[in-house]
Amino acid sequence: MMKKKNNENENAIAREKEMEAADDSLLKEYGKAFHEILAEKHIIDSTITMLQWELETITPPGGQALLSKQMGYYSMKSYDLLTSEKMQKILACFKKNRDVLSPVLKREAELLTEDMERLRLIPPGEYKAYKEFLTESQPLWQKAKAAGDFSMFRDALKKIFDTSKRFARYEYEAKDEAYRKEKTLYDVNLEQYEKGMDVARLDEFFGALKEEVVPLLRQVLKRQGGKKAKNPNLTVDAQKKLCRYLSAYLGFDFERGTMAESEHPFTTHFDKNDVRFTTRYMKNPSTFSLLSTLHETGHAIYEQQIDDKYTGTILGNGSSNGLHEAQSRFYENVVGRSEAFWKGLQGREELEPLFSKTSLGSFCFAINKVEPSLIRIEADELTYPLHIMIRYEIEKGIFNDTIKVKDLPEVWNEKMREYLGITPPNDGAGVLQDVHWADGLIGYFPSYAIGSAYAAQIYASLRKDLPFEKILEQGDLAPIREWLSAKIHRYGSFKDSRDIMKKATGEELNPKYYIEYLKERFLK
Amino acid sequence: MMKKKNNENENAIAREKEMEAADDSLLKEYGKAFHEILAEKHIIDSTITMLQWELETITPPGGQALLSKQMGYYSMKSYDLLTSEKMQKILACFKKNRDVLSPVLKREAELLTEDMERLRLIPPGEYKAYKEFLTESQPLWQKAKAAGDFSMFRDALKKIFDTSKRFARYEYEAKDEAYRKEKTLYDVNLEQYEKGMDVARLDEFFGALKEEVVPLLRQVLKRQGGKKAKNPNLTVDAQKKLCRYLSAYLGFDFERGTMAESEHPFTTHFDKNDVRFTTRYMKNPSTFSLLSTLHETGHAIYEQQIDDKYTGTILGNGSSNGLHEAQSRFYENVVGRSEAFWKGLQGREELEPLFSKTSLGSFCFAINKVEPSLIRIEADELTYPLHIMIRYEIEKGIFNDTIKVKDLPEVWNEKMREYLGITPPNDGAGVLQDVHWADGLIGYFPSYAIGSAYAAQIYASLRKDLPFEKILEQGDLAPIREWLSAKIHRYGSFKDSRDIMKKATGEELNPKYYIEYLKERFLK
């Protein structure tokens, strides 16, 4: 231990000396080395993305073992590149000379320095062991979910939460006193997925939501009565053709992307020229795939519209999880659940398989019907944020030691009863339904609700500039897509999501737009 | 240059000394290091395979640039691992101590030493430059093929042949005089795809074929008269279901593999637990996908049946190109074009979409109809080897300087007229039809014809042990699959294809079985 510390001190002194001597030629040399390392990292990171894509869309059961090995190998290569002595030197030099860096390089260095500094607080051995553990815990979760039995996954989940808290603590304790006074341990995780987000803001956000959405839900259910939604019984083949058509109609460029099928729909990208999304074809409702396609296309269009100048840099990605989710929710809900959108599609030959089986009115009722249900990803627009609230309260409770992992099934079911009035028949349809925790993603869920709120806020702003309904009814969505490109998409990660939202909508996250939007949609 | 030579001498002397001192502990240490390097190489090589799979099955046009970069990067990583100083030391040590190595390790070391020694004769700079050139020439070939214009690809193809000859010469000139007396430059390439194969043997093989097949073809065409084949007009959806059913019926294990679609059908594998093949759905003939599925399933079953003990070693692959092609041709032709095979399938519910549109007799005539045609991969069983012969004669001619690349369209068309009696309407349907040369694969084609001949030879041997027709008619192919597993598949690359064939059939390649088989099939 001591030896290591001494080495670290020596390294620190040597680096300090070097930095003082930093001149143009060193900056140039480091700039070149920086781009070489990042080019290599991009190749490796996009390989990891490809392996994940393969796992979700095509890998047979027999292929999973080798795939796990490959993922582990490349994850460590990527980690090694980012935390290498060379990279540390470069980033330290850039930090010191930030004023002379190009804007892109400066932003890249900032983001990487944050990542690297966070990673360096975790002992490499612990980090690697945790990554390996996660590849093992994923199939365990799958089995437990299929069996509907939490006890099969309980110990693994405890280890995941314990490790996540321990890693958060490394970072939390390295912060200054002012930060620690203001923030909680859970905030460390929240920040990873949505910069600037913390428990204080989210308590306010979810507080407002709880106050408004829970009574709104009761009101809507009462108005809706027992009216049943009609399933148009689309065949899988018809769904496939419709999904492809709708995605292109929103503006997805199939020359620079592709569509496939997976158990859980998702979007991914290697760079903006190869953006991929999946959907899932269900029998009932057979419209699930259509809405899910609109959702994923929203993510995909965001990536496809990032400015070319960020391609190949680490800025060639959407800015934050919340802002990404805003694009998907915008296309799925604000656009895709509106009557105007489907009016603009009526009469087209490609929509015939749908509208020969259902009327516009009956279809729009079906895709907007409110019905408290068990599964988050199948939830309607109004109950959706309540699903997120449950997960937020649980994560927060585990991080502040008021909830124990072993009690999760009871805690989960109790909250489901309180907010949604239903009880899961087993853990598979309850606490085990999502993959996120098994993947080690703690603090991720709130970004889904933030995304919905951002989407409503973006909508309020966009309506001021554009005749939204008219555009939808006319059946050419280019003006909306271009507005999003100019205000949001083109920046990639060059700007923080907070800054982008502020410039695009005039303010940071404000839940009032979301609540207004929900009221307008569901009480009109 | 001198410095490098000196270094090499010093290295050689140092290595020599080390080897003399080789004892158990060094062997143990090297054994461990060897397996570590190979484990890493397997991860990287299977990633390259995955990238190729992606390119053929799903990558959108926009994604090809990044994919090329990734392939180039991993190819060089794999090359570096194999040619590293460390690996050279290990392999030299193993060579010296071969008698005490385990049989598997000994075989691995032998094969790798061959590869490494061949690679080391090529200056690394030239090797890398050529690999990069090939990634650029592939899209060029695609464009030229689409335009049907050889001149667009002529210069690139000249460079490919020139480089291939130069690389072959490095190896040829490093051989002893006895080898050079007996062998030609082209033999260096032939050996890469089929050990022990050379121009002397192939001249004999194709000579016999020419003598027998060309007159046989005339005879068959005369007998066949103007009878037309009927296309059962299967829908793509029906083809997909039939292909999946047929593949499982032959014995493909979908838990350890998968099926997809691509322009050119192919089979690949990451290891025996993830084996993948593709097919192509055509309108006319709509049975193309069925036969192509039988073909690729033959390749796939070979990989799936390799003994578990070779998984993760470099022996976990089929033994040679020719022997691989033998398995695919055996399942496609010997099994899949026989009436007994389809008799065994008649009456099954899954075959109803086919047999409701065609009778057994009419279908078997259609899949066996002989008709000289332009495209190799769509050729019937009898004219197929003539397509290969053309390619063999051209490659041989370029290597012995009797054919010039610039004259290829004329040479090609002339040979098509001579052997098949037809003239391609353009270069896309002629000399540019295959991807192999654009991929730098020179000397590969003959293994296709060897495969057909091996298949007939295997068939002759298998019939002595098993009631072949009866098994097919009874509709359970397990005995045939198990015979192939026991005699051929299980060995992987642990044995040479020549040794495997000798043990399984009693002799090395003998074209007489192939000619007998063709006569029996087409004159019966």
Q: Can you walk through the features of this model?
A:
The structure is a homodimer of 524-residue chains. Chain A has 524 residues and is mainly alpha-helical. The first copy, chain A, has two domains: 2-184, no CATH class; 199-523, Neurolysin, domain 3 (Orthogonal Bundle). Chain A is 66% helix and 3% strand. Chain A is built from 23 helices and three strands. Chain A has helices at residues 2-20, 24-57, 64-83, 85-96, 103-120, 124-147, 151-174, 177-182, 185-193, 199-224, 236-250, 288-304, 321-335, 339-343, 352-355, 360-368, 384-399, 408-420, 446-465, 468-474, 478-487, 497-505, 511-523; strands at residues 257-261, 267-271, 274-279. In chain A, strand 2 and strand 3 form a beta hairpin. The first copy, chain A, is globular. Mean pLDDT of chain A is 93; it is low at 1-9. The interface between A and B is medium-sized, with 32 and 32 residues.
Briefly say what this structure is:
Two copies of one chain form a homodimer. By secondary structure, chain A is mostly helical.
How are the secondary structure elements laid out?
The structure is a homodimer of 524-residue chains.
Chain A: H1 2-20, H2 24-57, H3 64-83, H4 85-96, H5 103-120, H6 124-147, H7 151-174, H8 177-182, H9 185-193, H10 199-224, H11 236-250, E1 257-261, E2 267-271, E3 274-279, H12 288-304, H13 321-335, H14 339-343, H15 352-355, H16 360-368, H17 384-399, H18 408-420, H19 446-465, H20 468-474, H21 478-487, H22 497-505, H23 511-523
Parallel strand pairs in A: 1-3
Antiparallel strand pairs in A: 2-3
